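SAMPLE LOG
Freezer: B-3
Tube label: C17
Construct: single chain, 97 aa
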Amino acid sequence: MSKVGWKLTGLAFALPLGFVARKAVAAGWRAVRHDDPPQHADDFEASWGETLAWAALSGVAIAAAELVAARGAARVWRQLTGNEPPGHEHEPAEIEA
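STRUCTURE (predicted):
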């Protein structure tokens, strides 16, 4: 049950943070460019530069949201259970000879 609980905890953080990240990047794009961001990779009306810039910005925003979600979920998991999340237990450091 702990793996399922961990997945649900992670999901509870990831979904809203991913949504907020996407909305924030789109709002920032609109504020700077005064136009909507490219909607799809096959949006042939958008230039290569616009499409690549949008892909890079969205990728960075989603990666940052994933990082914040994972660390936030781990912190809550530790507070609720007193243990590290499943699969993230610390291994004892190996001593080199």
